[in-house]
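Thread: Modeling a multi-component assembly for a lab meeting

Hi all, long-time lurker, first post. My supervisor asked me to bring a structural picture of a complex we are working on to next week's group meeting, and I have zero experience with this. I have the sequence lines for every component (862 residues in total). Could someone generate the structure of the whole assembly? Inputs are pasted exactly as I received them:
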Amino acid sequence: MIPPYVIANVAIIDAVRIIPEGYIKVKDKKIVAVGEGDPPPEDGWERIDGRKKILMPGLANTHGHTPMTLLRGISDDLPLERWLKEKIWPAEASLDEESANVGTALAIVEMMRSGTTCFADMYHLNREGAALSAEESGMKASLARGMIAFGAKKEQQEKLKTAIDYAKSCQTSSSGRLRGAVFPHAPYTCPLEFLRDAKAEAEEASLPLHIHIAETRKEVKEHEAKHGMTPVAHLLEAGILTVGSLAVHAVHISYSEMTGLKKNGVHVSHNPQSNLKLGSGIAPLPQLLSHRIPVSLGTDSAASNNTLDLFDEMRQAAMVHKGVEEEANATHAQTVVEMATVNGANTLGFSNTGFIKEGYDADFILIDSDQAHMIPRINHGTLVYSASGRDVTDVFVEGRPLMRDGELLTMDEEKIRHEAMNRSATLAASL
Amino acid sequence: MIPPYVIANVAIIDAVRIIPEGYIKVKDKKIVAVGEGDPPPEDGWERIDGRKKILMPGLANTHGHTPMTLLRGISDDLPLERWLKEKIWPAEASLDEESANVGTALAIVEMMRSGTTCFADMYHLNREGAALSAEESGMKASLARGMIAFGAKKEQQEKLKTAIDYAKSCQTSSSGRLRGAVFPHAPYTCPLEFLRDAKAEAEEASLPLHIHIAETRKEVKEHEAKHGMTPVAHLLEAGILTVGSLAVHAVHISYSEMTGLKKNGVHVSHNPQSNLKLGSGIAPLPQLLSHRIPVSLGTDSAASNNTLDLFDEMRQAAMVHKGVEEEANATHAQTVVEMATVNGANTLGFSNTGFIKEGYDADFILIDSDQAHMIPRINHGTLVYSASGRDVTDVFVEGRPLMRDGELLTMDEEKIRHEAMNRSATLAASL
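Re: Modeling a multi-component assembly
Sure thing. I ran the full set together rather than chain by chain. Output:
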C-alpha cells in the first residue's frame, strides 16, 4: 500500500478547469481532495512539491499497434498502397511474437515517458506478452487481438474464438487495469458475415467492438461499389456499430453518417497525424464534435506517425482544421484536452478516470513548465500548443508512481531499448 | 581561439547525405573534414564522443518576431481579426523597448535550446537590444526594424531612415554573424509609394527586402479590389520583389505568381503552423517546391504558434500537405530538412552554412537519439517525424559551443526566464 500523499504548489489543469496554484491529495488509488492554495501539513501524509510544474490527467491513446514501433522509420513518404505492399507487410511477415513483445515494451516506454497512462492496442499475433507488459508497466490498457478474415470459414471462427478468449482474459485481469476489445480489422478485410459473428460474440461477452473504418476515400468508394452503401452506413444498419463501439479514423464520412454514429452511441478515435502521413485525408473533427460524438485521440502505430506522443497529436488535432476551414476558432485547446483525457479513458472503458477531481482514480502526470517554450503563462493552450511529451517528468496511475523525475520505475528501459535495436537489426537482415 | 576538435562516433545527417557512423573535424570556425568511421587521434585535437547522437546542421528560422514570446498564450483559438484587435494590439501597446528586449532574449534561449543557430527577427521598436542579444548569444541573425506606414509622409521617411540605418549597422557588425534586412510590414499596411522608396533604399544599401504577403484570403481579395491585381503580382510588377527578396507566408498564390516569384529570384518563408493556427490557410508548399522556388521555414511569433521549435515546423511542413492532397508523397522528409537548414541559411544571407561539409561554417547541433521515440532507425524521417527540439543536447556556431549537454553557455537562462515572468505580469496588469 502506498502511503497517502499531497502534491502541493502545483498548477492544475483538466478538461473543465484551471487552478493556477493548488494541491491534490491522494489516498488508496484515488484523488480524495483537490483545492486552491496550500493545504496544512498532516501526519502520515507525504508531501511532494509541485512548484513550476503542471499537474494534468494522464493521457489516453485510443488507437495503436504497439509492436510496430520496430517498424518506425522503415518507410516514410510513400503512398498507402506502396507503403503497405512494398514495406510494411514484408516487414510484418518477419515480425514474430517475441519481436512483437519487444516492440510493445518499447511502445509502452515511449507512451509512459510522454504522459500516456491509458492506451488501446491491437495486433494480429498472440498478445499474452502485451497483457503482461501492460500489467507490469502499471498503466491501464484496452487490448485486442486483431482479426483479418480473408481465410476459410473454419479458420475465421478459430481466429474469432482466440480473440474473444484473449479479450475476456484481459477484462478479468487481477489488477482491474486491463480491458479487452474485439477488433475485426476493417470492413474491407472482414466479410459482413464475419463482422456479424464478431459482434454477436462481443455482445455475448459484454466486450466493445473496435474497427478501422472510412480511413481512405478508396475504401469508401470500393465499399459503395460493392454494397451500395458506405461502410459506416452499412455497419450502422447491420447493427455492428452500436453503443460503445469504436470507429477508428472515420476520415471520409458524411453528415448523415455522423448523425447515425451519434444516434447509435458510437465513439470515434481521431488519428490526425497518421491520417495525414499516409495521405488518407483529414477527418472532419469540428463536425464530429458539433454532432456531439464522443471523439478521442489515437496515434496509430509508430510506422505512420512516427511517435506515440499524444501531445503532438493534440497539437495536430487543434491545428489542422483551423487551416483547412480557414477559421482560427474551428477547434479549441480545451476541447482537445477533453478528447485526450476523459473522452479517451471513457472510450476505453475506464470510468472515474480523466479528471483531476475528488473520487477519481489518481491517474495524472506532471509537466515541467519552467522552460522557455512554456513561459510566460499557463492555460489549456500551453498543453496543446507549447508542451511536448518530452516535458513530462512524472507519471502516476491509481496513485502509484510509474515515472519520477524522468526515471521509469516499472520498466527496464535500457534493456528494452537495447533489445529493440537488436530485433530491428534482425528484422532488417531478413528483408 | 578554440582549439581544434573532432566529434567522433556520431551519425551525421544533412540535406544531401547520411553517414550512419562518422566524424567531423573542426578548426578555425570551419568544418575541415567529414568522414566515415573513426579518425586516428591527433596531437592538439580535442575529441568529443558523439555516440548515440545525431549531428546535423543547425536550423535556420527565416521568420519571427522575438519580443512576442511575452505574448505566448495570451490568446488562442480566436479568428485573426479579433486576435489582433482584442488581444495582440492592446498588449503590444504596453510592450515597451525594455520588455521587447526581454522577449527577444527569451526567444533566443528557446531557439537555441531547440537547435536553431540562425534566425530572422523583425519588430517595430528600437532593436539595438536585439542586435546585442544576438551577438552575445553567438547565433547568426538577420535583423530588421519593421515598418507600418499609415502615417504622414515625413513620419514614414523617418521610419524608413531609422530602419535602413539599423539594418546597415547589423550588416557591418564586428562578428560578421549579423545581417540586416528592410522589412516593410505588408502591402496592406504600407502604400505602394512607400514600398518603392523602401526598395530603392534597400537596393542602394545592398540590403534584402522582406515582406509579409498573401497571408490571408481577405488580404488578397482586398488588394485585388483596390489595385486590380493580387499583392504578389503587383509587387513583382512594381519591381519590389526581386532577386533575394523574401516573401513571408505566400499562402494564397496562384501558379502564375509562383512562376513570377521563381523568375524574379524571390525566396519564400513557409510558416505552416502560424498559418494554421490563425486560420490563414495552407500554403501550396508542394507547388512552390515544384516551381523550384527556394523555400525555407519560419515559426512566426510565439503568439501564433506557440513555440519557436523548428522541429515542430518541419513535422508540420512535411505532414499537412499529404493530408490536404491525399498523397503520402506530396512532401519528403529530406526536402524538409533542406528547407530548414541550407535553404534557410542562404535566404538569410549566410553562405557556406547549412551543410556538414568541408569548408562550411561549423554550425551544427547534436541530438540524443538514444530515446524510445527515435528507436530503432535513423534517417531524414527521424529528424522530421520523430525528433523534437527538446532532443537537442548541443549547439555549435562557427565552431563555438553555445550549448553543451543541455546547458546554455552564452545566455543567463534562469535570469531571462525570471525577467520574462515579471515583464509578463506587468503587461497583464496594464491590460
